[in-house]
Amino acid sequence: MRMYDLILKKRNGDELTKEEIDFIVNGYVRGEIPDYQVSAFLMAVYFKGMTKEEISNLTLSFVHSGDVADLSSIEGIKVDKHSTGGVGDKISLIIIPLVASLGIPVAKMSGRGLGHTGGTIDKLESIVGFRTELDSNEFIHNVNTYKMAIVGQTANLTPADKKIYALRDVTATVDSIPLIASSIMSKKIASGSDAIVLDVKVGSGAFMKNLEDAEELAKTMVDIGKSLNRKTIAVLTNMDQPLGHEVGNANEIKEVIDVLSNKGAEDETTIALTIASHMAVLGGAYDDFDSAFNALKAKIESGDAIDKFKEFIRIQGGNPEIVDHPELLPQAKNHIEIKAPSSGYITSIDAESIGISAMHLGAGRRTKEDQIDFAAGITLTKKIGDQVDAGDTICILHTNLEDIDEARHVAQSAFSISEEKPEPVKYIYKIIQ
């Protein structure tokens, strides 16, 4: 088998066999196939696409290139959730205690952030003492006992995907649906869950900017899950403005507390309850979505959800007192108000620009080596549809830095104001199952 022949085959639009895909992936991981040949293969995939079977085989090849979590000793149906990424996206932190409060095991592996703001692991580490490095025995014990646990992804989880993604990043082949879908699903399959709910973000702050592309990605990932015997549902959600009111790390933890205490913003509460309800149905707790939604809403209203979040913090070494005293979380020393330049209605908020501004404040990473400032971030005091007068505060920048001219400019330019009130924002676009 020669790599040249496989590049030619895919360039001509022909279907590769499982053995041929394994040859490419394994050969590249072992260093037997050079970057330039894999780059040519990726570009051929970009232009010619892949069949459903090819995408499933590529996903499995990524899975078997490294460690595969064995969660067989965890009782019940293990349900996981994945987001394609957005700005102010703290949904995972809401759904872990919420779903666990129904007795459904949530065994979650998450990553750190690179870009706008921190990932789920970074946000949790803004809680003093919170441990995201658990050995397998403690991880499994916590899920069996408390129905929830989270750890950072191991270095050897889908190493082929990591290596190929780094190459995609520098060869203009990142935005290929087969490659995106296999990359995401390989990590979920390797993490060992029985069922997966995918939060596919759509809009200015998402990887998929339009509904058509997002729907294609969602359908592709659901097909992969189905072909690999994983119950999979995709929820297409709005990311044309940041989710909720907080962007950052410690301040997103504060907003998680608000949602679980029945004081959260409507958009993130609705999305969190929707995703958690689908997880509850896949996990076997309820037969239908409406019953699950009502039960989870009741968990928030009764205080059970926030109590479960306190327990989640405690069992992983953090200080649960931050729930009642969020001032114990890291605090920035500088708070800069951004004012509305004119009167009218907020018609759009470019989510990506808000994310970039937050990164300039210290809330995210430009490179893997950058340190995150947990206290840095942005509070949105106005959202799309809100009426403002000239001089009203539209957002507040939180930072420990002194020179923030670029962050200030980017945040200011993210808001559009018009005399005409916009249509109400839709939070959920579609369910793919």
Automatic annotation (TrEMBL):
SUPFAM superfamilies linked: Nucleoside phosphorylase/phosphoribosyltransferase catalytic domain, Nucleoside phosphorylase/phosphoribosyltransferase N-terminal domain, Pyrimidine nucleoside phosphorylase C-terminal domain
One MF term in the entry's GO annotations: pyrimidine-nucleoside phosphorylase activity
The protein's Enzyme Commission number: 2.4.2.2
Residue ranges of every copy of the Pyrimidine nucleoside phosphorylase C-terminal domain listed in the record: 345-418
Source domain of life: Bacteria
Keyword Glycosyltransferase attributed: yes
Gene3D superfamilies (alphabetical): Nucleoside phosphorylase/phosphoribosyltransferase catalytic domain, Pyrimidine nucleoside phosphorylase-like, C-terminal domain, Transferase, Pyrimidine Nucleoside Phosphorylase, Chain C
SMART domains in the record: PYNP_C
Keywords assigned by UniProt, alphabetized: Glycosyltransferase, Transferase
Reaction equations catalysed: 2'-deoxyuridine + phosphate = 2-deoxy-alpha-D-ribose 1-phosphate + uracil; thymidine + phosphate = 2-deoxy-alpha-D-ribose 1-phosphate + thymine; uridine + phosphate = alpha-D-ribose 1-phosphate + uracil
Cited Pfam families: Glycos_trans_3N (PF02885), Glycos_transf_3 (PF00591), PYNP_C (PF07831)
This protein's record includes keyword Transferase: yes
Protein family (similarity comment): Belongs to the thymidine/pyrimidine-nucleoside phosphorylase family.
Physiological role: Catalyzes phosphorolysis of the pyrimidine nucleosides uridine, thymidine and 2'-deoxyuridine with the formation of the corresponding pyrimidine base and ribose-1-phosphate.
NCBIfam families given in the database record: PRK05820.1, PRK06078.1, Y_phosphoryl
Subunit structure, as described in the record: Homodimer.
Name by which UniProt lists this protein: Pyrimidine-nucleoside phosphorylase
Provenance organism: Defluviitalea saccharophila
Species lineage: Bacteria, Bacillati, Bacillota, Clostridia, Lachnospirales
